[in-house]
Amino acid sequence: MTTEGAAGAKTSLKLGCIADDFTGATDLANNLVRAGMRVVQTIGVPEQALTTPDDAVVVALKSRTLPPQQAVAQSLAALHWLKAQGAQQIYFKYCSTFDSVYTGEARGNIGPVTEALMDALGVDFTVATPAFPDNQRSVFKGHLFVGDVLLAESGMRNHPLTPMTDSNLVRVMQAQCQRKVGLLDYSVVAQGEAAIAQGVQQLRAQGVGIAIVDALSNADLLVLGRALASLPLLTAGSGLAIGLPANFLVQPSAFASTLPAAQGFTAVLSGSCSVATNAQVRHFIDAGLAAFAIDPLELAGGANLVKQALDWASERLGRQPVLLYSTADATAVKAAQARLGVQAAGELVEQAIARIAKGLVERGVGQLIVAGGETSGACVQALGIDRMQVGMQVAPGVPWCHAVTGLDRRPLHLLLKSGNFGAPDIFSRAFDLLS
Ligand code: ADP
Prior knowledge:
- The protein is α/β, with parallel strands linked by helices.
- The chain has two domains: 3-252, 3-Layer(aba) Sandwich (Rossmann fold), CATH 3.40.50; 259-432, Four-carbon acid sugar kinase, nucleotide binding domain (Molybdenum Cofactor Biosythetic Enzyme, Chain A), CATH 3.40.980.20.
- It is 36% helix and 22% strand.
- The protein is built from 14 helices and 20 strands.
- A 15-stranded mixed beta sheet has the order 11-12-7-13-6-3-5-4-18-19-20-17-14-16-15, sandwiched between helices. Strands 8-9-10 form a three-stranded antiparallel beta sheet, with no helix packed on it. A two-stranded antiparallel sheet has the order 1-2.
- The two termini are 35 Å apart.
- Adenosine-5'-diphosphate is lined by residues 271-274, 277, 296, 326, 328, 332-333, 336-337, 345-346, 349-350, 372-375, 418-419.
């Protein structure tokens, strides 16, 4: 089925997705591609109409830590754009730990965004489930488990920006919502599609507007995907998405993840200091490949490390990938933060790496890996990228993407790896997969 897009162009857009952060958007896109959809991820709400025949668009916002009013405004802008492109079903994607801003008056913005989307779409019922079994997130009796422990007993209890101290999602969501929040219990979900449809009718009859949904496995999510096919709005982590493409008669296929042929030199930029990224940088260096270290204290001291790094890379770009990294262990990071401040150290490094990204592409790099969520955001911005075609998965949640940059419209294959994702050999494995 095709529909008229905003500019009158025929589009075949099936799912329109709104993600509350950048790497979360990639995670969702990756699940949809694996289930057979052609997916574009946009950075923010596009100004122009969709011109490619994609099955799904994921609009990546940075709204998770925004006050509710701003998060609502951004989400509604995304909704209006997606509807104008002909999206048949809307999916609001948040974190699988159900966290969002929680300071002062704001008791979270998942509820306010959900209700604003319901109002705009004129719907009286939707669901909410962050269940993502592949990532050890399950919901039972409305309680969210992270691995073997309840959410409020997990590390999320002490998250600096978005602490989660209650595992009961019905309670958490009700505190954020005007509408009545209920529970679609596992005893119903386990009985399959017909029981779920009946359960939804009962909840509606009880005046429930938003139902937290229990799910423990991918099998549950697949059944739920079928059972909830007719709801105009779904809200979830990335897990519920695995069952949706089949509703649009889309089957897994190699075509979904096909990207243009890779070209240009290969490079890795790493600004992540996670345990996994430290191991990946070590693995790369131990393999005898060329690496250039970026030290925040040297940067702060005024050294022109961006020029030095680009001069160094220019001499080495060729058959083998090069790595430029600020990745350091916890002790070194703490020392830099103590001298410069946490925020200032982070921004200094992000901006330096972003300028290096731009310089590398100008020097002929066509395949670029960026490690680090915030670092990726800074690089994508510096490269003038506003949308990416999402391709094949390299590791869970980490797909290769393809973009046209703002630098003379040079094409670029881009792999954005957040924090703890990926095995130690992901950098070399990723390039092997493209060749
Ligand atoms: P992750 O996905 O692992 O959280 P991010 O890029 O989101 O990675 O965050 C890492 C942050 O640490 C960035 O702000 C980055 O600029 C900063 N950073 C990188 N290297 C260093 C370092 N050596 N010392 C202090 N801060 C650093």
